[in-house]
Write a structure and sequence with these properties.
- With about 110 residues, the chain is mainly alpha-helical.
- Helix content is about 85%, strand content about 0%.
- The protein is elongated and about 65 Å long.
Length: about 110
């Protein structure tokens, strides 16, 4: 049986690996960088709106909820991709056919559609 501490360490390792591989992608992605600038500008404009504290709290809570959902979806997607890679590697570990050959054959099959 797998211990809970192993699972916790695995998730921490996956998170570290994700950050290591994601950081350069984010830094060099023009779309992400532009969206980040746009978000910062919109945040400034939001702060300048003449609205009451109740409306501001609703907007703030909504933004926090959306951010949390996006972050959790991103984390789960990363874990799903990681899981899928392990599954694919396991499928081809004892196979005579390489993954490259299978992907090339699949590409040829889909090109004919």
């Amino acid at each position: 049986m797998i211990s809970s501490s192993f699972i916790v360490n695995l998730f921490k390792s996956c998170e570290s690996l994700k950050q290591w591989s994601l950081s350069p992608l984010i830094e060099n992605d023009a779309t992400y960088q532009q969206d980040l600038k746009d978000c910062t500008a919109l945040e400034i404009r939001l702060e300048q709106l003449a609205i009451g504290s109740e409306q501001r709290m609703v907007i703030s809570d909504y933004i926090a909820c959306k951010n949390s959902l996006t972050a959790q979806y991103s984390n789960l997607s990363y874990l799903a991709d990681f899981h899928n890679c392990i599954q694919v590697m396991a499928l081809f570990q004892n196979s005579q056919q390489s993954l490259f050959d299978v992907l090339c054959a699949e590409s040829i099959n889909t090109d004919n559609l």
